[in-house]
Predict the 3D structure of the following.
Amino acid sequence: MSDVKYSPQPYFLLDRDFNILEFSQIGAEIFSIGDMFLELVDWESHKKATNILGNRESRAEGELIMKTKESPYALFDISVNWNEDKGHVICIEKDHRLAELESIVEKHRKRLAETNIELLEKKELVEKTLFEIKSLSCPFIKLTKSAALVPLFGNLDEELISQNEKSVLDKTQQGGYLEILFDFNGVGDLTNEGVEAFVSLVKELQLMGLQPCIIGIKPNHAFYLNNSKTVPDVPFLNSLSKAFNKLI
Amino acid sequence: MEKAIELAQHLLEGDQDTSWELIEDERKASKDSLYIYENIITAAMRHIGHLWETNKITVADEHLATSTCDYILARYNWQNGIDKQISSNGKKAMFLCVENEQHFLGLKMASQLFSEYGWETKFHGPNLPLEYVKKAAEEWKPDAICLSFSILYHAENLRPYIKELEELPHHPVVIVGGRLLSQYEFERYGSDRTLFLKNLEDVNDWLDRHQHGVKMNVRC
């Protein structure tokens, strides 16, 4: 017996018919080794084992269910490399990471068993409705040939802008407007991400050659806008009527 | 089979929403539960097994698919309960996999078929040791106890399970199922009272016959 005996993993040297010629000590500790390699493989994995081992042209690897001294149904990763009619096979038992995955799946199963699907569906419906509400919270209203009003409703967060940004840009371009009035009178709270997204929208409009204008900023809005990395360089008006007077 | 392969793909991706949409489309096309369970879901999971056999996926992928499939089964059962006004037949059945057996999806589908026939069901899932089953059955007194196994060497567990459960004071009927039943005979592990059902179609047929029996008894 050669040095393969001292391989730190279960190692087998096979002939063309998958007879075991040599094996490592660790292999003998884990498996009850007979003459044939396939005797170590669960019967339902025989076909797969034959396919993996049968690829004599190149190296091959895959998972097999194997019979160990501990368990008749243990999952192993096997790798084979053929050289001059001799197959060098290493079998490595799937480690604790798979056990961890199994325990997570089991947790999911138990949680699902306790989940009230009705509540889950209601939650999904609420999320869908919220999406629709956000899409309706940024209407685009034509005021004159060159000016449009975009009143914002609800909280100014990232979703409000990301859901409506494309529509505002498209309508602005199609209508040939010069001024876009963003009305903050209906805005409740602001988030930093929402303000950043809004400022980015304003800048995009400016790049398109338009003049955005912001109306109805309240003290709490001013606080956020002032803290924004880049305060938009646009006119701020405190009421819609002032904006109308300016336009007319 | 095309739909089953499509579902298998979604399950392997862990895509609960698209998987559910596929099942929902079948449901809306008036396909019944037996068809959806056998021809879509079981076929998809068999295809996933085939992908493992041919070294295309790993056991970890299979776990994700199983978890996703578990979700769509739960959702399907819930949706079914809303759509069909199922009236109780007053019977109770409990479901479990024998010790160490982890494959529970087939059993879950069987339990959902029982629910559709008006049975009150308790699904105990995979790997339930006999002592727990006995305790649960003694307390809940089910009319039927359904056992499942998918790995051949777990068949050895059947004998004590069947014997001890059939001997319970209220004499439940013990029903055994699992994919291997269509390939091998396992009758020797049971008694002349034990039922061995090869697939979900057998389960459905038995429920159908049982239902008529219950109705006839009521008429008498």
In short: Chain A touches chain B through 27 residues (CB under 8 Å).
